Each structure stands twice: as structure tokens, then as C-alpha cells.
């Protein structure tokens, strides 16, 4: 359970730890828990190869991540930042430019990701693209003869009470934008988004918040369709053997890009560079994807190293998919608060 | 207590100080300081630890009044608190009576253990167990269908009743414990006196047992009502689409948008409302007690 008290405690603990000298050969990494960078086998391999010791720390929300780097200058060497937050971190002078010539694998990152305006400012690189994925739809195979192709299936009366959506205001509003044929980063007609989401509410069984929620509901055959992350849908199918298929609707899907940055004041920039280079290495990625299941690597060679029928190569690598997805761009705190208010209103007012 | 105030009270306080000190020191450090910090936060535009410039404002409190959403949710949470408290009385009071006056010896110990057993398990484990029981195709559904000759479909999961069931289960031990203590303290001779004077069982319950155990009922109700109004874990997990309450909205402010000032302001409005309710009903309850 996410607990505010716990967050406060962790923040306090982080402030305390930053007061002590950080050892030079340690690489302090800040990332989501269970998201590649803390895999024990990966850390072991990295430490053996480079001699740097990895110290992991975690966050539960992007806001918490920003607070942790603001309040602990010099503690972290590597931080994983969603590209949509890179702008803000750069503007607040929390992260520094990265010398990509030190990263042997950087050249293999696909040009559109490496050149993303979200990660590059004044000709300098502030974020190294790591992995990307989609928030699309996933279906319970038992409920469908042929997979649907349209996002409108969420509103189909036949699935009343068997639809799920993630309890996340930004994602819900952007999903509503796609359903109403709008640009997720420039929503002109908020009223139609609200009306569209309001008409979805009676269909919904519950709001999911973790991968585990989703998989359990499918395992006990309680749901037909819902929003889901591409990597999670693949993991549910291949690792947990659940009847789950990802659907990337013709109307499009929300895409996100995760990147690594180096905070200002890092005491071990060389170690940070080595760690980032390892994280985008095909060797690490293939093992991560086959052992655990991962999003799609930004490194084209890493994706090419997967087996031909691998989900991240076959489905996500399809050029037709690339054409209809929309990458999340930065949003302001005021927008975020407005989305949350709209989402809470929908949850309360529409019974 | 008031009668003891006199010449001896000063030296009494001095000798009591070493005994009181650890508890009050702990309360100061663990409750008073963080709570004061939260009061402080609730009047700020942004958290000082966010590293951004901040100033004092009343805006966080104004948000509550400018948006009908929060008042609606607060009412829903108060209703939830009342309903859960009521069910705890209905379920807990008879159990407390039986424990205190009917059962004796080992059987009482065994039943008592069953009552406080929920305290020994983690709250989350309890809620997730309920999730397994209540859902369609879950334990309750399967068992009923195995026993009954006709088919029924029970899917209580993700509904308002599921939230009530989960919360009543978590809080009913408080009611049993507080009522048990007061009922046990009732002198059996009072009940016997009533009976010998010709009172029916119902009259004894209404005129002797309930009035004498009222302090326990009140204490139990307050212990249950206050945390239930602010609860967020049970509604979120068991309530599904209907599980948005005042507590979950406060949690969103702390966790989802990292807006501690608004979250703190909403919390203190809740605290104020709860205190007003308790103050308003206390004369009535005191008379009843």
C-alpha cells in the first residue's frame, strides 16, 4: 500500500543519509522498484564488469522522484525520469548534460528517440532514452472470438460491469482524448473528454492500480477488457500464461518514453555513465526481456537481438503501430491538478 | 478526579512526573510535532522541501468550500462512519454481553480469543482475504452454490456493501472490548434485583444493562467512527468504482499529485468536522450515560 507516512519517512531517511559522505565508487540509482535497474543478476554482472557498486533507491511517483533529487543534491548519480518530466528537471537545474561520447551504446538508439526534443535542450543531451511502452487496451481472450480493433469496444453494452481502467487522472484524461479523436498533448475540447469518460463510468467494474490487480481479475474471469500497459500484457501472456492479448486500437494509444539522467552534483559521473551504458546494452536488455519481461528498448540493436516472434519486436516494432501512437509530452502542475479534479468528480458524480 | 484537587495535588504532580514523562515525551515527539508541521503545511502554497518558492495562503482551505466535490465526499464518509458504527453496535454489543455475563472460564477465553484475533493480522491481509471471499466465483459464491439446490450469483466485490463488510470486520473488536469491560463491571445483584421486582428481560436490558454500559458503547462508537470517516484502504480495495471517499481523496493529494498542503488542509477540515460532531453529541450522550 502506498502510505504518505512511509513516503515522509523515506524522505527523512534520504535527507539523513545524504549528510554522510558518499563513497566514490558507488553508483546511487533512483528508479521505480522492480524496474530493471534493481534486478539482482544485472547488478551483479555490472559490478563484476566495472567495479562500481550499485546502491538502489526508489520512488512511488514522479513528484516524489523530483522531490528526492531536489532535497538530496549530490546523493544520486543516476535517475530514471519519464521524458515528459525531463523539461521540468532541466529547468530547475536538477540534472546535467550528459557526454554521450562516453556511452558506447548511445549510437544504436533509434534516431527519433535520441533526438526527442523532450530530452535535448540547446544541443545538449539531458536524458538517454532507455525503454518505451504503451498504455493501450488488453482483452480477456475468453470474452472475444476475434479481438476488437476499436477503442469503442470499451463502451460496448455487452461488457457492462466488466471493464477496467487505471486509477490515474492523467492517463484517464489522455485516454478520453484518444477516444474523442484529439491530440493527448493538446486537448482542445475538454468537455467532450469529460462526457466521453462519464459515459464510460457505468461500464466500469473497478479501477486498477497495479499489474497484479489486472492479472488477478483476468485469472478469476471477472473482466473482459480494460486499459493496460503493453509490457504488462505481454508479461501476463508469456510468463503468467493468462488469456490476455494486447490491442492497439486504430484510434491510437498513449506512449511513454523513459530515460536516464545524471543529477547535478553527482559524485561519480563516470560510474553513472557506465551504468547507463549497461542499461541500454543489448546483452542486459535481452536477458531482462526474456527472464522478466520488459518494455521496448530504445536501442534498435537490443530489440533486433530479441527472437523474431518476441512481442517487443513483432508487435511493438510494427511500423503501423508507430504511426498511430502518441507520446506523452510534459504537462504543468496546474494541468495535473485540473485533471485530478475532473477525474475525482467523475468518480463521485457518475454512479 | 475533581474532588482530589486540594493541598496534596502539587506534590502529587511532582511524584507523578517521572511516570508521566515518557508517555508525554513520546506524544510530543511522535504526534504533536508532526501534526504541527502538517498544520503549518496546510497554510502554504508549496512544500518547503519541494525546493520551490512558497508563501502563506488560505487557498487550500478555500478549495474545500469552492468545490462541491469535497463536501459531497465528506458527507458520504460521515454516512459510511455512521453505518459502520451502527453495524458494529448491532454485532458487537450482543457478543460483549454473552462474553461478560453468560460464558465463564475456558469457553469465555476461547471466544474472547476469536474476537481479538483480527488484531493479530495485518490490515491489508484481512482486506485481501475479503476480496477472495466476496468476488464472483469466490469462496462465498462457490460455497453457497455447492449447498443450495438452485444457482445464485453472488458478486459483492467492488460495491458499497463490500466496503461496509470490510470495515465492520476490522473495527467490531473495539466495540466488543469496550462494551465487555463496562458490562462486566455491572453488579449481577442489580440484575437480580430487577428480576425479583418483576421486570421482564427486555425491561432489564433497557433500564439496567444498556444505561450502565453506555460509557462503553460511547467509547466504542467514538473509537470506530473517527477512523472510519477517514479510511481509505478498505474503500479503495473493496469499493472499486464506488470506493471514492474523503479519505481516498486525501490520499490522492499526498501520493498522486504530491500536493501535501491541500491534503493537509482537507485532513484538518475532517478533524474539525469530527470534533464538532463529537462536541455536539457529547451533552446528549453524557445525559444518557
Number of helices of chain A: 15
Share of residues in strands of chain A: 15-25%
Our Rg estimate of chain A from Cα atoms comes to 20 Å
- Which oligomeric state applies? heterodimer
The CATH topology of chain B is: MetI-like fold
- For the secondary structure, the number of strands of chain B is 0
Order of helices and strands of chain B: HHHHHHHHHHHH
Largest interface: A-B, 35 and 33 residues
Helix count of chain B, per DSSP? 12
Uncertain ranges of chain A: 10-21
Mean pLDDT of chain A: 90
CATH superfamily placement of chain B? MetI-like
Question: Keywords, please?
Answer:
heterodimer, A: 351 residues, alpha/beta, D-Maltodextrin-Binding Protein, domain 2, twelve-stranded mixed beta sheet, two-stranded antiparallel ribbon, 15 helices, 20% strand, B: 289 residues, mainly alpha, MetI-like fold, 12 helices, 76% helix, 0% strand, disordered N terminus
Written overview of the protein:
- The complex is a heterodimer of chains A (351) and B (289).
- Chain A has 2 domains: 4-132 and 256-314, 3-Layer(aba) Sandwich (D-Maltodextrin-Binding Protein, domain 2); 133-254 and 330-349, Periplasmic binding protein-like II (D-Maltodextrin-Binding Protein, domain 2).
- Chain A contains 15 helices and 14 strands.
- Chain A has helices at residues 4-18, 40-50, 62-71, 83-91, 111-114, 169-179, 190-200, 211-219, 230-238, 269-279, 282-291, 300-304, 311-314, 319-324, 333-349, and strands spanning 26-31, 53-58, 78-82, 95-96, 120-121, 124-125, 128-140, 163-166, 204-208, 225-229, 244-247, 253-263, 296-297, 325-327.
- In chain A, strands 1, 2, 3, 4, 7, 8, 9, 10, 11, 12, 13 and 14 form a 12-stranded mixed beta sheet that branches. In chain A, strands 5-6 form a two-stranded antiparallel sheet.
- In chain A, a hairpin with a 2-residue loop joins strand 5 and strand 6.
- In chain A, helix 1 (4-18) packs parallel to helix 3 (62-71) and helix 6 packs across helix 15.
- Chain A is globular.
- Mean pLDDT of chain A is 90; it is low at 10-21.
- Chain B has a single domain (67-288), classed as Orthogonal Bundle (MetI-like fold).
- Chain B has helices spanning 9-42, 59-66, 68-102, 105-116, 123-134, 139-147, 160-184, 188-196, 201-229, 233-239, 246-255, 260-288.
- Chain B is globular and about 75 Å long.
- Residues 1-8 of chain B have low confidence and may be disordered.
- Classes of the chains: A alpha/beta (351), B mainly alpha (289).
- Chains A and B meet through helix 1, helix 3, strand 9 and helix 15 of A and helix 3 and helix 11 of B.
Amino acid at each position: 500500500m502506498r502510505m504518505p507516512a512511509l513516503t515522509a519517512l523515506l524522505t527523512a531517511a534520504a535527507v539523513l543519509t545524504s549528510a554522510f559522505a558518499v563513497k566514490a565508487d558507488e553508483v546511487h540509482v533512483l528508479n521505480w522498484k522492480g524496474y530493471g535497474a534493481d534486478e539482482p543478476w544485472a547488478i551483479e554482472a555490472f559490478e563484476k564488469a566495472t567495479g562500481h557498486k550499485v546502491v538502489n533507491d526508489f520512488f512511488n511517483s514522479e513528484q516524489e522522484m523530483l522531490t528526492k533529487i531536489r532535497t538530496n543534491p549530490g546523493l544520486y548519480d543516476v535517475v530514471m525520469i519519464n521524458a515528459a518530466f525531463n523539461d521540468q528537471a532541466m529547468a530547475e537545474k536538477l540534472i546535467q548534460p550528459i557526454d554521450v561520447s562516453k556511452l558506447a551504446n548511445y549510437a544504436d538508439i533509434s534516431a527519433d528517440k535520441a533526438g526527442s526534443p523532450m530530452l535535448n535542450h540547446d544541443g545538449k543531451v539531458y536524458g538517454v532514452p532507455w525503454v518505451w511502452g504503451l498504455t493501450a487496451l488488453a482483452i480477456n481472450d475468453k470474452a472475444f472470438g476475434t479481438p476488437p480493433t476499436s477503442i469503442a469496444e470499451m463502451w460496448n453494452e455487452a461488457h457492462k460491469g466488466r471493464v477496467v481502467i487505471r486509477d490515474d487522472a492523467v492517463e484517464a484524461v489522455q485516454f478520453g482524448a484518444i477516444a474523442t479523436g484529439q491530440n493527448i498533448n493538446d486537448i482542445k475540447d475538454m468537455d467532450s473528454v469529460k462526457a466521453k469518460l462519464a459515459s464510460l463510468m457505468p461500464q466500469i467494474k473497478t479501477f486498477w492500480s497495479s499489474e497484479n490487480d489486472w492479472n488477478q481479475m483476468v485469472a478469476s474471469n471477472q473482466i473482459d477488457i480494460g486499459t493496460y500497459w503493453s509490457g504488462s500484457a505481454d508479461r501476463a501472456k508469456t510468463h503468467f500464461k493468462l488469456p490476455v492479448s494486447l490491442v492497439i486500437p486504430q484510434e491510437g494509444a498513449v506512449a511513454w518514453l523513459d530515460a536516464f539522467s545524471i543529477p547535478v552534483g553527482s559524485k561519480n559521473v563516470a560510474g553513472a555513465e557506465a551504468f547507463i551504458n549497461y542499461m541500454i546494452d543489448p546483452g542486459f536488455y535481452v536477458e531482462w526481456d526474456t527472464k522478466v519481461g520488459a518494455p521496448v528498448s530504445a536501442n534498435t540493436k537490443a530489440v533486433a537481438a530479441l527472437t523474431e516472434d518476441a512481442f517487443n519486436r513483432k508487435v511493438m516494432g510494427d511500423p503501423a503501430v508507430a504511426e498511430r501512437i502518441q507520446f506523452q509530452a510534459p504537462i504543468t502542475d496546474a494541468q495535473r491538478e485540473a485533471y485530478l479534479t475532473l477525474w475525482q468528480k467523475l468518480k463521485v458524480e457518475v454512479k | 478526579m475533581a474532588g482530589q484537587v486540594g493541598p496534596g495535588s502539587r506534590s502529587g504532580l511532582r511524584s507523578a512526573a517521572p511516570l508521566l514523562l515518557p508517555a508525554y515525551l513520546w506524544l510530543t515527539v511522535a504526534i504533536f510535532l508532526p501534526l504541527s508541521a502538517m498544520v503549518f503545511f496546510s497554510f502554504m502554497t508549496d512544500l518547503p522541501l519541494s525546493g520551490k518558492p512558497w508563501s502563506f495562503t488560505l487557498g487550500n482551505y478555500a478549495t474545500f468550500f469552492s468545490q462541491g466535490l469535497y463536501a459531497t465526499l465528506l458527507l458520504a464518509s460521515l454516512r459510511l462512519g455512521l453505518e459502520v458504527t451502527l453495524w458494529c453496535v448491532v454485532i458487537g454489543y450482543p457478543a460483549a454481553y454473552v462474553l461478560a455475563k453468560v460464558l465463564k472460564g475456558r469457553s469465555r477465553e476461547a471466544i474472547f480469543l476469536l474476537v481479538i484475533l483480527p488484531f493479530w493480522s495485518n490490515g491489508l491481509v484481512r482486506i485481501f482475504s475479503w476480496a477472495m471471499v466476496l468476488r464472483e466465483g469466490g469462496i462465498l459464491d462457490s460455497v453457497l452454490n455447492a449447498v443450495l439446490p438452485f444457482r445464485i450469483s453472488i458478486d459483492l466485490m467492488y460495491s458499497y456493501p463490500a466496503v461496509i463488510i470490510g470495515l465492520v470486520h476490522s473495527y467490531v473488536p473495539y466495540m466488543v472490548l469496550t462494551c465487555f469491560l463496562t458490562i462486566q463491571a455491572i453488579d449481577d445483584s442489580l440484575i437480580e434485583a430487577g428480576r425479583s421486582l418483576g421486570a421482564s428481560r427486555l425491561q432489564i436490558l433497557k433500564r439496567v444493562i444498556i444505561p450502565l454500559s453506555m460509557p462503553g458503547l460511547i467509547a466504542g462508537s467514538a473509537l470506530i467512527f473517527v477512523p472510519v470517516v477517514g479510511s481509505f484502504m478498505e474503500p479503495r480495495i473493496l469499493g472499486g468504482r464506488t470506493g471514492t471517499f474523503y479519505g481516498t481523496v486525501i490520499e490522492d493529494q499526498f501520493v498522486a499529485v504530491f500536493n501535501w498542503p491541500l491534503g493537509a488542509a482537507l485532513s484538518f477540515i475532517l478533524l474539525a468536522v469530527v470534533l464538532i460532531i463529537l462536541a455536539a453529541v457529547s451533552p446528549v450522550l453524557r445525559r444518557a450515560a
